[in-house]
C-alpha cells in the first residue's frame, strides 16, 4: 500500500576484467541503485592458483602469499563501503539525496 516497493539484489563477482585476481567482489542494490560495494579476499590456495593462472601471473611469485592461507597465518577477511545517505533516500523513496544529509554539498555550497 502507499505505492512503495523495494527489492534488494545481491550480485557477486562483478566485472571480472578489472577485479584483482585475489578477491571476490559483490554489490548490493535497492530499487536498481547500488548501495554497497565490497570484496572478500580469496583464502583458498587452489582457487588463488587458478585465478592467478587465468591472469597470467606466475604462481611461484605468490607462493608465500598462498602459504599464509594454507597454514592459517591470515584469517579470511573482507570489507564493504555503504552510502548511508543513498540507502535512506532509496528506502524512503525520496527524490533527492540532499534531503537525507544534514550538511548537503553541491557546487554552490561546500559546507
From TrEMBL:
One of its GO terms (cellular component) is cytosol. The keyword Ligase applies. One of its GO terms (molecular function) is RNA binding. It comes from Noccaea caerulescens (Alpine penny-cress). Keywords: ATP-binding, Cytoplasm, Ligase, Nucleotide-binding. Coiled coil: none annotated. It holds the Pfam family tRNA-synt_2. Residues 17-106 form the Aminoacyl-tRNA synthetase class II (D/K/N) domain. GO terms for biological process: aspartyl-tRNA aminoacylation. InterPro entries: Aa-tRNA-synt_II, aa-tRNA-synth_II/BPL/LPL, Asp-tRNA_synthase_2. This is Aspartate--tRNA ligase, cytoplasmic. The lineage of its organism: Eukaryota, Viridiplantae, Streptophyta, Embryophyta, Tracheophyta.
Amino acid at each position: 500500500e502507499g505505492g512503495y516497493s523495494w527489492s534488494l539484489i545481491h550480485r557477486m563477482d562483478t566485472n571480472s576484467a578489472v577485479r584483482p585476481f585475489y578477491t571476490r567482489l559483490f554489490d548490493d542494490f535497492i530499487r536498481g541503485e547500488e548501495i554497497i560495494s565490497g570484496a572478500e579476499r580469496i583464502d583458498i590456495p587452489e582457487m588463488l592458483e587458478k585465478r592467478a593462472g587465468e591472469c597470467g601471473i606466475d604462481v611461484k611469485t605468490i607462493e608465500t602469499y598462498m602459504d599464509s592461507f594454507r597454514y592459517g597465518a591470515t584469517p579470511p577477511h573482507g570489507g564493504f563501503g555503504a552510502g548511508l545517505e543513498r540507502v535512506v533516500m532509496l528506502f524512503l523513496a525520496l527524490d533527492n539525496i540532499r534531503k537525507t544529509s544534514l550538511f548537503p554539498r553541491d557546487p554552490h555550497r561546500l559546507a
